[in-house]
Amino acid sequence: MLKRVIPFAHHLIEQVVKPGDHVIDATCGNGHDTIMLSRAVGEAGKVYAFDIQAEAIANTKNRLVTESVSNVELIHDSHDQISQYVDQQITAAIFNLGYLPGSDKTVITKPGHTIGAIQQIIARLKQGGILVCVVYHGHPGGEEEKNALLDYFTEFDQQYFNVLRYGFINQKNNPPFVLAVEKKKTD
Ligand SMILES: C[S@@+](CC[C@H](N)C(=O)[O-])C[C@H]1O[C@@H](n2cnc3c(N)ncnc32)[C@H](O)[C@@H]1O
């Protein structure tokens, strides 16, 4: 069976992450990806979870409490400030782009911030590590972000990175797709 995009994104991360690792949720929103990452790194690991909206931080916090999770640092700031909070090596990161479901549809991820954050994560990504973006692009501003990311990732040197696009090409209404970057080697 072909996995839908979110299960596929989670599957990629779960293949790579080990207990004790440090990972990033760059857009925690309602906390679904944060919980997946928390389980993958276990009690000895750590998840840095970012969001610019107080509502998203509160929603994720509630989910963490319900699930009795204690290995997540919630950071109410833009993901392009990652360097201020994370200096460890990272095994995996996830971005779920677009707007917070059920909330203000005008607060969206923006290409400049997203690419700024990706640059900082790539610099901290371990050899064999993975960065995954779930790209939603049907909303106003989404097409611009999608194109900026495709342009940016297309330039990644294949000696150092594998870059994958995964999505369904026969779905209606701008279906989301996955962009994933695997760091093959560091030098
Ligand atoms: C599609 S939602 C994320 C859904 C989430 N991963 C989940 O599992 O529920 C996108 C989120 O990105 C957040 N966001 C937008 N710009 C951001 C930025 N510059 N830094 C961090 N988060 C941002 C929005 O507030 C929103 O909550």
From TrEMBL:
InterPro entries in UniProt: MnmM_MeTrfase (IPR010719), SAM-dependent_MTases_sf (IPR029063)
Keyword line: Methyltransferase, Transferase
MF terms (GO), sorted A to Z: methyltransferase activity
Name of the protein in its database record: Class I SAM-dependent methyltransferase
SUPFAM superfamilies: S-adenosyl-L-methionine-dependent methyltransferases (SSF53335)
Keyword Methyltransferase: yes
Keyword Methyltransferase: yes
Top-level division of the source organism's lineage: Bacteria
GO annotation (BP), single: methylation
Native organism: Amphibacillus indicireducens
